[in-house]
Amino acid sequence: PSRDDTVLWVDWSKEGIAAVLTQGSKIVSIACKVASPTESRYSPTKGECYASKWAQKRFRVHLLSVDNFLLASDHRPLLGIYSKKDAPDDDYAEMLLETEEFRSRRTVVYVMGSKNLSDYWTRLFNRPPEDSSNQASINCVVNALTIEDGDFTPGKRELKDIISHFKESKLQYT
């Protein structure tokens, strides 16, 4: 598979972090998690950089099996951060270092937020109370796993949102 076939869509919000891995017009996998209290306080740029690192590490095996892939983000500053040899500060440097193995395979591209497949998954849940953040993460992971296994049965409103989002992106929801 080539870079044209494989896209890792990433997104960060104060509520959650999500990634959607696609090949061709098919969704390979979806992963999301609730943002920790610390992650929810990141600046947008640091949050998006963290989300891209988390996604690349989460899908490491898939990404190492392809020659090239696109990393799609709705945050333009990531283009500059990934294209430069220097990071703005030590936090960014550490995140970039953790994904160094993908540098020769990865091309970072900008997509509008409304076209970013992972955007929907960062907003699946409202910010839970502090004591239930683990449960919300578990629920999100279970939702992602059941989608992969074909067992996902969303409500009418959720299904309409999901189908609409995938139709706009020209991907197949199977």
Chain-wise SSE layout:
Blueprint: E1 6-12, E2 16-23, E3 26-34, H1 44-58, H2 60-64, E4 69-73, H3 77-83, H4 90-98, E5 106-110, H5 119-122, H6 133-148, H7 156-169
Helix pairs in contact: 1-4
Can you characterise this structure?
It is a single chain. By secondary structure, the chain is α/β, with parallel strands linked by helices. Helix content is 40%, strand content 20%. The chain has helices at residues 44-58, 60-64, 77-83, 90-98, 119-122, 133-148, 156-169; strands at residues 6-12, 16-23, 26-34, 69-73, 106-110. It has a five-stranded mixed beta sheet. A hairpin with a 3-residue loop joins β1 and β2. α1 packs parallel to α4. The longest helix has 16 residues, at 133-148. The model is unreliable at 131-154 (pLDDT under 50).
DSSP summary: helix tally: 7
Percent in helix: 40-55%
Share in β-strands = 15-25%
Q: How many β-strands, per DSSP?
A: 5
How are the strands ordered across the major sheet? 3-2-1-4-5
Distance between the termini: 21 Å
Radius of gyration from the CA trace? 16 Å
List the uncertain runs: 131-154
Q: Report the principal-axis shape.
A: globular
Structural class: alpha/beta
Quick one: biggest sheet? Answer: 5 strands, mixed
Please provide the ordered H/E string of secondary-structure elements: EEEHHEHHEHHH
Name the average pLDDT.
76
